[in-house]
Amino acid sequence: MVTLRSFQLSDVPWLVRYLNHDEVTHHITDAIPSPYTEADAHWWLDHSHSTTLIKAIDYEGQLVGCISAEVGDFEYNRSAELGYWVGREHWNKGIATAAVHQFMKQLFEQTDLVRLFVSVVSVNKASIRVLSKNGFSLDGELKMASFRQGKFYDEQLWSLLKPEPLN
Q1: How far apart are CA 71 and CA 31, in angstroms?
Q2: At what angle do helices 125-133 and 95-110 cross, to 10 degrees?
Q3: Alpha-carbon span 19 to 41, nearest angstrom
Q4: For 88-125, what is each residue's pLDDT tens digit?
């Protein structure tokens, strides 16, 4: 069973393990330090406890990933960018799909957000599948939008609007 929870001190070794795996970090933000240390994990725990918009993804009682939302500033304050990752050994189990579904439901029910979006590297087909399964729509493709490890990547922008309440 997939659940979302706050990060705990016992998650530190798992964070270090997962975030030092190149396949996990290859297509997510370069803001994650490399190599990822215990000090980085402790900083993340402290940071995550300052907001309700960062959650640990738990699968069968163990940390397997992270999901978060970054709310926009000023006129974009009703929109948030989602970010998520799952440890390599837990891929292809539907965990990310379930976590995104739970988190977007919480965000739409418990906040005043009306739009969620994700910018995903266009070669990251697994993440694109997760978004599609959760009802996100492709808004467009941004050519050569990111540069990492000496290579440019196109990115796709996917979004989901809060459903209208049924009357």
Answers
A1: 17
A2: 50
A3: 9
A4: 999 999 999 999 999 999 999 999 999 999 999 999 99
Yes or no: say if 105 and 35 are a contact pair by the CB < 8 Å rule: no
What number of other Cβ atoms are within 10 A of residue 156's Cβ?
A: 21
